[in-house]
Amino acid sequence: MSPSEVITGSQPVAAAARRPAAAPQSATDAEAAAASGALSRPDDGESEKTGVLAERAQEQAERKEARESGGSAQQVEVRAERRETEQSGVLRERLEKRPEPRRAKESAVPVERAEERVEPRKAGADSRWAAIARGAVLPIVVVAVWQALGTLGVVSSTILPTPLDIARAFYDLTVSGDIFKHLRISLWRAAIGFALGGSLGLLFGVLVGLFRRFEQSLDPSVQMLRTIPHLAVTPLFILWFGFGEFSKILLIAKGAFFPLYVQTFLGIRSVDAKLFDVARVLQFSRLQQITKLVLPAALPNILLGLRLSIGVAWLGLVVAELMGSSEGVGYLILDARQFSQTAIVFVGIVIFAVVGKGSDSLVRYLEKRLLQWRDSFNG
To answer: Which keywords, in A-to-Z order, does the entry hold (predicted)?
Structure first.
């Protein structure tokens, strides 16, 4: 064999000897690229599977190439073990780094929710004071113009006394104690009449709302009586029951009955029929249906009827005390009218307005407390 043949024959051997040495470098680069790509997308499960399959295919190809090039089996196994160690280290780093963004997100959620809970409260308090301020603008303007007209003598004090004159009359009645005596009698009449009429309205509303036979028997007559004004039945009440307390309480009860009756009936009939099917499946008794299903579902309408009944009860109180009485705020107004004491008449009117607004605000507060579960539009 000539020297040229020896050199020519040794070139493939040298190339084959150099080729396994370059293979680990290329494999290391491929593993680093795959690891960096996998770490940049820690949440992409499909890309991880693809990277692992590609690494395994590359490993098998390198083993086959090493065997064909004459490399020893021990060198091939050493390189394979080193590659598996590097891959396990990369996977361990992935597992350690993957939960970190999730924990960060989870820890950030309560903070954001807490901020969302705090901010609306501050905004709600500011808006509440702003609403009170806006509601006070019109009364202040009216009182200021009223006082200016009275001071300038544009309107006679006998016809329209100034707010200062009304305040003086209120002070005199407070010092003498007359205002408290009349107010106590009026509050007692209104409370008894409202309790009687409101309870009957709630009871009949529940019966008519639940049972169709009661609706067919009672509702037409009740709707007909509801349209009769207070003043139209006042002479009959005086004729039947006289000028005593009983006739006044019945007149107040008549006014408080109808709003609560109508709203209770509408609230019950607006309950979803599927809830009654669920109640039958759960084997609720009739009492359980009323207490656990009907009344909670109809509560918004019932509270609305309560507010309307209180307002109408105050109207009935005024009519009852003006038709003939010796005590009460209505009697105070009637007596002051006979002696042309217009300031005292306005004192009685202001008392009715303030007490009526206070009772309405109390019911609205109860409505907000009892209906916190309702996500309604607030404007």
So the answer is: Cell membrane, Membrane, Transmembrane, Transmembrane helix, Transport
